[in-house]
Design goal:
The protein is an all-alpha fold. Helix content is about 75%, strand content about 0%.
């Protein structure tokens, strides 16, 4: 097996040290005698409602994915696609340094498909539509009051992301299969329908976040919660941590504090929303136990 160059190893180490440092800093600033009662006041009913809202967002992603596949005459049951979305979420959350969630989905969706290039392209197209729809949620940041510097941070993170070597490598792969899915981007109706599904799935995930903030007694409207979530999403795109770990928690905390939450409430909200997303993705992990060959297939795609 070819030995990885040293810079890659150092970069992987850095992507773990940055989030651990950020999380450690946050935890050192809070008053534990205040945050523990905050967490205890959150009912299991609220956590379940938040988890169901996030699960709904994953289901809508599967509906969008099935729509794109059917346009290319690829018929895959919605149930299987939903499981693949959850498996991909699990891989992204728990296997970030080895196999990405999208790669696992690509390896799974091509099984038994004669149109392999189209099936692979559908995963990339699905991701692009999700990213595009996230921009349509940016106006919610207007409700935060002082949003301009944060928007610039999000734009800077996106720009930095595109210059990273691993992104360039991924983009070159996407371009090789892009021609197979050209119809998805040249049909106005297809673009509109895909964006609507994307907007709805993102909205459901923001509802999940809003439920958590409400349960913690943070007085923000849904649109303010959406503004915090969308800016945190773009901040987490900075490729200096694994899966946005630390960056998401830090940005959520800082933004909620600007909206009147205490530091302890902000940290609690960030921790709980991470807990909810991880808990839902564990469903995909359970499914992966019966399909371990997907990881081997995905590693061959790297």
């Amino acid at each position: 097996m070819e030995q990885k160059p040293a810079p890659n190893k150092w970069w992987i180490l850095l992507r773990w040290l940055v989030p651990l440092g950020l999380i450690g800093f946050l935890l050192s600033q809070i008053q534990w005698d205040e945050i523990l009662p905050l967490l205890s006041r959150v009912s299991w009913t609220s956590l379940l409602a938040s988890a169901l809202a996030f699960l709904l967002s994953q289901f809508i992603i599967a509906v969008r994915w099935q729509y794109l596949l059917r346009l290319q005459d690829i018929r895959i049951p919605l149930t299987r696609l939903t499981w693949l979305v959850l498996v991909g979420a699990f891989a992204s959350n728990f296997l970030p340094t080895t196999v990405g969630g999208d790669v696992v989905k690509m390896a799974a969706v091509v099984q038994g498909q004669p149109k392999r290039a189209v099936a692979v392209a559908s995963v990339a197209a699905d991701r692009l539509f999700n990213l595009a729809a996230m921009f349509f949620w940016l106006p919610s940041a207007l409700t935060l009051g002082w949003w301009s510097p944060l928007l610039e941070t999000g734009a800077a993170s996106s720009s930095a992301l595109t210059r990273m070597p691993f992104v360039e490598k991924t983009w070159s792969r996407v371009k090789r299969v892009f021609e197979a899915g050209r119809a998805w981007f040249t049909s106005p109706r297809t673009v509109m329908v895909a964006l609507i599904w994307s907007w709805l799935s993102i909205g459901a995930s923001f509802v999940s976040f809003w439920i958590v903030t409400t349960a913690l007694g943070i007085s923000v409207t849904f649109w303010q919660a959406a503004g915090v979530a969308v800016i945190s999403y773009f901040a987490a795109l900075l490729p200096i941590s694994v899966n946005g770990l630390g960056l998401m928690e830090g940005s959520v905390t800082a933004l909620l504090v600007t909206q009147g939450a205490s530091l302890e409430q902000g940290v609690a909200a960030a921790v709980l929303i991470r807990f909810v997303t991880l808990a839902v993705s564990l469903l995909g992990g359970v499914r992966l136990l019966w399909h371990r060959e997907l990881l081997a297939d995905a590693r061959r795609e790297l």
